[in-house]
Amino acid sequence: MQIEHALRAVNKGGTALGIKASNGVVIVTEKKLPTPLIDESSIEKISVITETIGMVYAGVGPDFRLILRKARRQAELYKLRYHEPIPVSQCAREIANIMQEYTQSGGVRPFGISLLVAGYDHNGPQLYQVDPSGSFWAWKASSIGKNSDNAKTFLEKRYSDSISLEDAINTAILTLKEGFEGEMDENNIEIGIVDENKKFKCLKPSEIADYLNEIGD
Amino acid sequence: MQIEHALRAVNKGGTALGIKASNGVVIVTEKKLPTPLIDESSIEKISVITETIGMVYAGVGPDFRLILRKARRQAELYKLRYHEPIPVSQCAREIANIMQEYTQSGGVRPFGISLLVAGYDHNGPQLYQVDPSGSFWAWKASSIGKNSDNAKTFLEKRYSDSISLEDAINTAILTLKEGFEGEMDENNIEIGIVDENKKFKCLKPSEIADYLNEIGD
Amino acid sequence: MQIEHALRAVNKGGTALGIKASNGVVIVTEKKLPTPLIDESSIEKISVITETIGMVYAGVGPDFRLILRKARRQAELYKLRYHEPIPVSQCAREIANIMQEYTQSGGVRPFGISLLVAGYDHNGPQLYQVDPSGSFWAWKASSIGKNSDNAKTFLEKRYSDSISLEDAINTAILTLKEGFEGEMDENNIEIGIVDENKKFKCLKPSEIADYLNEIGD
Amino acid sequence: MQIEHALRAVNKGGTALGIKASNGVVIVTEKKLPTPLIDESSIEKISVITETIGMVYAGVGPDFRLILRKARRQAELYKLRYHEPIPVSQCAREIANIMQEYTQSGGVRPFGISLLVAGYDHNGPQLYQVDPSGSFWAWKASSIGKNSDNAKTFLEKRYSDSISLEDAINTAILTLKEGFEGEMDENNIEIGIVDENKKFKCLKPSEIADYLNEIGD
Amino acid sequence: MQIEHALRAVNKGGTALGIKASNGVVIVTEKKLPTPLIDESSIEKISVITETIGMVYAGVGPDFRLILRKARRQAELYKLRYHEPIPVSQCAREIANIMQEYTQSGGVRPFGISLLVAGYDHNGPQLYQVDPSGSFWAWKASSIGKNSDNAKTFLEKRYSDSISLEDAINTAILTLKEGFEGEMDENNIEIGIVDENKKFKCLKPSEIADYLNEIGD
Amino acid sequence: MQIEHALRAVNKGGTALGIKASNGVVIVTEKKLPTPLIDESSIEKISVITETIGMVYAGVGPDFRLILRKARRQAELYKLRYHEPIPVSQCAREIANIMQEYTQSGGVRPFGISLLVAGYDHNGPQLYQVDPSGSFWAWKASSIGKNSDNAKTFLEKRYSDSISLEDAINTAILTLKEGFEGEMDENNIEIGIVDENKKFKCLKPSEIADYLNEIGD
Amino acid sequence: MQIEHALRAVNKGGTALGIKASNGVVIVTEKKLPTPLIDESSIEKISVITETIGMVYAGVGPDFRLILRKARRQAELYKLRYHEPIPVSQCAREIANIMQEYTQSGGVRPFGISLLVAGYDHNGPQLYQVDPSGSFWAWKASSIGKNSDNAKTFLEKRYSDSISLEDAINTAILTLKEGFEGEMDENNIEIGIVDENKKFKCLKPSEIADYLNEIGD
């Protein structure tokens, strides 16, 4: 029951989605801005865990901050112990284990968030989804939050294993645009990418604008 | 459910609002005085966290005092560790993290308050809102408490990014005046400002009176 | 809900009230004596916290004793640390913080009392009211317990900032007399005062009798 | 609610009463003996706390034993610390504080007893009543348990401040006799007294018989 | 309510009874054997606490075993501390205190047993009854368990203070026989006695048979 | 109530029974095999505690494993302390004490099993039954689980104190056969015995088959 | 009740089954892929515990990960202590003990999974099923999850003790195929085997494809 409550919180969250391309991964999310008074530039729904791994959430923002802190701590511990960056799958697993623990122990409640974890390591580009129950799977492309069912149907039609990161970025934007309420611009979406350089980075508004223009043509 | 209970407490609290100007931030609040017997001069709904950061609340006063003590302690710890004042965003984040923790742990209840945190640091003027769930966002202008929806609509119409602190103060007073029950005077509102000097200060009743006179003209 | 239960207990308690005069503070309370068999001289509803601060309660007597012990301990700690008596506002704040804590933690219940804290320090005469929620405010004059609403209305009409302590004592007695069941005498009310000497003291029955005679004339 | 449950237990307990005389205090109680098979001589409803203080209870006997042990421990601690016997009021206060604590903490229930504490110290003879809520007051004369309301009415009529201990003992016996079911004799009541010698003692059956004979004349 | 549950368990237990004679104490109990398949010789409802004290229970057998272990430990501690055997009243008191504690603390339930504790010390022969609430009294003769009310009426009629132990044993057997279902023999009752030698002992079946024959004559 | 839940679990368990003969003890049990796919040879419902003591259960298998581990640990501790094997009665008592503890403490539930404990020591052959409440008795013959009432009636008719172990084994098998669903063979029952050699052992299927053939003749 | 909740979770899990052959063990499972977007290659429902033991689950995936970590830790501890690999039965027992513990303690809930544990040691090939209650049995062949009842009926008909591992693999695939929704291929099932080499391994998709082709012929 607590899990279902958590899932409802996820499904009310702003849509986010990710696509694993042949040479990288992209994650995008809408930023839900109920009013223009919010300073968009201060909102980061996509966050960096390590140099090579980033993630985006749908659901309860404050819960995300807590899991982000815990994920970073796990990643640091890993690096201290093994003198190399935490692999993407291991990172997603650690997050998922924490989230599982919060479903089985007394005195706490499950996290009200789903996550898309994107990274690039010696196993290539990788995209993981983690849910409140603590389940996690690798995806070629996935979506979480409000319109995630439609977005996944959309992605199924367009996805191919050989998709390039550039195409994936465009596909991700187009998918998000499908269910987008109002006009999409460089300030109300976020895009995070990681390519063969193994550096996860969030695109600047100007870079996002370029992609939007390209698509708009 | 506990969160909803907390939000109801917030919405019964006296209206407060804040505006981020190009060269500073202003926060104002009404002081809810059910009877003239209360000594207005002793009530401070706007409180100083550090030299450069202040905050105002709507909701359960005693809960505010607790979060204020915790916020000040975090700010001191930051200074001890990094030998510089805590940045505004970091300060708001620490407060938000504490409030998130109280939503997820057993044996405690969420805080029955929303906050507007105003400060000025190397990133310029900043205004944050923190809610009982622990969510926090940067705002250009926002309002919390009883008439916050109307106040936000009012602010949306009047806000411009290039607004000066002086104009922001006047706009803040005018917005608060909209939903104000009874006559507004220098004793039943509070105003806190921070400008390029990076000192947060509460205006004296005489200073508030000057602004009120100016507007009244 | 627990808070409402506590407030009901307060509202069933015997009426108490306080008035801040220009040169001192007075607090008075009825002593609820269901039977003449109780030794009136042994009942102290007004208690001394420090040399300069006293308080009276309405509500659950045993809860008052606990908060009194805690208040005294805080006052002693303050003196040990700062080598000067605890200021009145700080004392009221410490009491209020303890009472707030009992509303938010598991395993305890809120205190079933409201308090009037009266003292005189370098900031002059001061009167604070503390409620079960932990809220506290400075008052010019206030009342707690059974007839507190009527008493406050009465006080609003008669209060002036320039009132002298002597007049305040008389006003306090008259206000209490309004809702008093049965004959008021020196044994069924208590009066505590603090003046410019900064010594809080409870009046002796003979002193109270003098005031009553004066009024009776 | 738990307090009400405790009070009901008190009101089902055997009647006890106490009278503070000008030169001493007497407490008396019936011993509820459902059957002659119980060895009356082994039952002590009146117990000694220190040389100078005794008490009697109405309500749940086993709860009384626990509070008796705790009271004795507090009295010993006091003596160790201050090298003089605990004053009666302090002793009653310590007992009351323990009983208050059991009303406010989780994991325990309030004590199902009311107490009459009688003693003689440098402040003269004293009689305190302590209730399950932890409230305690000094009384001239009081009664607890089954017929306590009637007994108090009876005492109100007969009490005078100048009453001697001898008269008080007779009055106490007469009062208890009013609501007594069956024949009163030296084995089914207990009498404890303390006089100017500051020694609390329980009367022997033969001494009680003498008082009963005297009254019977 | 938990106490009432415990009392019901006691009243379903097999009848036990005890008689304090002028020169000793006897306790007897039926052994409830639902089937002849149970090895009667292995059942001991009467147990030895110390050389001089024994006890019998009615109610939940496993609870009895726990209290028996605790009673023995207390008795040993007493001996270690004071270098003499624990007096009977002290032993009963310790047991009663443990049982009281289980009625007032969270996380445990009251013991589902009543006890008759029989012993002989420098105060002579003694018989105590301890109930689930933790109350304990000295009795001349008492009964616990299924038919205890009838048994007590029976005992009241036949008891005299000057009864000898031999007569008491016979009276005890006759009383138990009153409500006994089926034929009484040396295997379905137990008898424990303590006399001026201050050794508590359980009678052997052959000894019991002798008493039964005597009575049968 | 929790105890009743535990007893229901016991009564749904497969029938087990035991007989104490003049020169040994036998315990037998059906193995409930819902499907032939289960590897019968891997199921042991009868388990060895020490060289001389074995036991069988009816009820919740996993609970049995826990009590088995605890029983073995107690038996080892006994041997370490006293340098001799734990006596059968002491072993049953330790198990029963553990099971009692689980009925009275918070945070755990009673064990959902009844046990038959069989052993041979200096007191000869012995058979104990332990129930979820923690009660334990020595039996001449007993049965637990599904058809235990019928089995006990059957045993009452056939039991004699002078029965030899060989006859007891046959009687045990015949009793179990009464309520057996389907054909009984060497794979769907288990037999454990202990004789004057004081070694508890489980019979091999071939040995069981011999007994079954003998009976079948 | 919590156990029933756990069992419902198991019965909603994807079907898994295992067959113990004369010379090895096979376990197979469907992979429930709600969408082709999930990266099948990243999902492992069959996991290795030690070199010689593997297991598959039906039910709540994140719970499985926790039990897997605990199982591996137990296996390592065993090896450290005894310098040899943990036997299969001991491994299943340790897992079952952990799962039992979660049914009896407060503050945690039972695991929402059933397991099939397959291994080969000095006792030959072995297959264990462990359920949420903590029960575990050795099976010749078994099935857990969605269609397990049908699958078990199917297996009962086809199983023989002398089945070879190759035949068992084919039988396992055919059984799984019975209730399979949609087309079965090398990517939507997993197969784990262990043979006389005592190495547990998961078949590669190409190996699975070979078996499927063989069957399809």
UniProtKB/TrEMBL annotation, chains A, B, C, D, E, F, G:
A biological-process GO annotation: proteolysis involved in protein catabolic process
Listed GO CC annotations: proteasome core complex, alpha-subunit complex
Protein name: Proteasome endopeptidase complex
Pfam family, one: Proteasome
PANTHER family named in the record: PROTEASOME SUBUNIT ALPHA/BETA
Keyword Endoplasmic reticulum: no
Family per similarity comment: Belongs to the peptidase T1A family.
Keywords linked to the UniProt accession: Proteasome
Keyword Aminoacyl-tRNA synthetase in record: no
